[in-house]
Structure prediction request, 347 residues.
Amino acid sequence: MNEWTGNPVLCDSLEACLAGELPAERRSEFEDHLLKCPACRSAVDDWRALCRILETATSRLENPSPELWERVQRPATVQMRQHDRGLQKGRVAALIGASVAAGILFMVLLRPPPPREESVKVSNVQPPAIAASKPPKLEFPDDVIGVPIDIGKPNVTVVWLYPTVKSANQTN
Amino acid sequence: MREGLTEHVPHVYRLALRLTGDRHRAEDLTQETFLRAWKRREQLKDKRAERVWLFRIAANIWKDELRQISARGATVFPLPDNAPGAEPTPEQSAEARESLERTLNLLNGLPVRQRTVLHLIAVEGLSPGEVASVLGINTNTVKVNLSLARKRMREQLAKATISSDLRSATATGDE
Prediction:
């Protein structure tokens, strides 16, 4: 409060106004008050002028030197590179991990299921007639190698034929 | 470094000057502030509060340094390069520049808390609440320091007969 005005309540708003804390609803009221109260007006004018001159002085006379700019930017750039490198390493590791996981999954899916216990029992107990029967004797021509594979049930013999190539000496 | 952070370098440096009162220390403090800010950038949630966040980091680093300095028994506040009473150099002869320098000298002549509060409110446009969070003090202390700083600056400016310059600067600015 000051002694030049007849409205102490509004003069009390001076500090709040200068600190930028005057509520919006009281701002226009205080602006009106400034027109009538030379003391408050002078205080506000001085404050605004001080703000302006300090802002001008600091921005003109207190600028960081080029060395400071370099000092500020250098360590940050190094850290940013390290950070990026870390990210890159992380990505590569994630990619490798994903590939390994995919490989394992692929192998698991392709592996034939283990034979059921029941079916094993059944295959072991073969009817005497079948068990006694011998696999038919197969004859192959000379230019193939025949490998008979007994797959059990049904009682079928699959034959793999590997064609052979005669050597040059044999051909001649 | 991200563009968003580097744009605050001059502001952090000026606050560092207010806190330390010394150009070299202010540069060290600014560098340390940005180094720490870069490491802790994930903590910053609100991009608009970036500058206040940086100010808080700078003030905290300086507080820690002050503790170490006082523990060692060393001088805490050396006189700034442009302290009151320093002889003006020939380049500083221009009237406007002199006026600005005198004002800065007066500001630097205030106690550290008063000049920092005044700087953060008058130059950086922070609210008393924001200043309180930056300096780790309560809002009432900010207001008291602002009032004292303002009063002292007014007195000093009147003594240094800068008031007329201020008024003409204001008049020119208002036109």
Chain B has a mean pLDDT of 81. The CA atoms of residues 155 and 174 of chain B lie 24 Å apart. Chain B has nine helices and no strands. Chain B has two domains: 1-81, 92-175.
